[in-house]
Amino acid sequence: MQKIVCYLRVSTSRQGSSGLGLEAQLQAVQQYATSMSAHITATYTEIETGKLNTRPQLAQALHLAKVTGATLVIAKLDRLSRNAAFLMTLQDAGVRFIAADLPQANNLTIGIMALVAQQEAEAISKRTREALQAAKRRGQVLGNPNGAAALKNTAAISVIKAKADHHAADLRSVINSLKGEGIISLGSIAKALNERGILTPRRRTWHKTSVSNLLARLCA
User: Fold this and answer.
1) Residue 55: which residues within 8 A CB-CB, separation 6 or more?
2) Dihedrals phi, psi of 6, to nearest 5 degrees
């Protein structure tokens, strides 16, 4: 029987405390599970605001789906189609994903949506840069360009490192499970992770070097 991990989301604490929208979402996922003769193994509910991109419940849902080989199912994709952070998280997770309101959507669909959302964000960034350049031409002092570039580069490196650390933490139980099965060499671990559809933080397949880096992060 197909296994499903259910992920529900509401955007405000008021909706979360009142249950507004959650019942309908859960019903949609349950109907999908029934139509597929699938079993819902766990349900995670996220209460978030538009200002926050942290999604601990989503991370837990993705982790459980990854470890158990289950499919992550949400009720509605339309409200999240412009949320780049959510879409990129799904795209990077290496987990099979279904939206009950759009079951024909697949990883390719999610990837395209993420690219569109990213392009929209880049367009906003471009307009901001053009506005700053116009201000500079008017004689406004905007700071040291080299210093800003260095700061931006440092921030980018920090984001990459944090993402890799978070990814490693998500995989700790998977690695422990593999070691318990006697899978301990770098090559055999890489093969096992690839067979499970788990990707590296940069959405690539695993090799001995990337496994070595992962194990080093887990031991740090």
Assistant:
1) 46, 48, 85, 86, 89
2) -95, 130
* pLDDT tens-digit readout, 11-36: 664 444 444 478 888 999 999 999 99
- For residue 144, give the DSSP letter: -
Same domain, 171 and 89: no
Q: What is the CATH number of the domain that holds 8?
A: 3.40.50.1390
The answer to whether 200 touches 93, Cβ cutoff 8 Å, is no
| Tally of structural domains, the chain | 2
Q: In sequence order, what are the residues at sequence separation of 6 or more whose Cβ sits closer than 8 angstroms to the Cβ of residue 59?
A: 89, 166, 170
Three-state secondary structure of 73-119: EECCCHHHCCCHHHHHHHHHHCCCEEECCECCCCHHHHHHHHHHHHH
Identify the CA nearest to 50 among candidates 24, 79, 88, 21: 79
The model's pLDDT over 166-186, given as tens digits with 9 standing for 90+, comes to: 778 888 888 888 888 899 999
Q: Which of 109, 136, 169 is the last residue of a domain?
A: 109
Q: Distance (Å, rounded) from C-alpha 66 to C-alpha 59? A: 10
pTM exceeds 0.90, yes or no: no
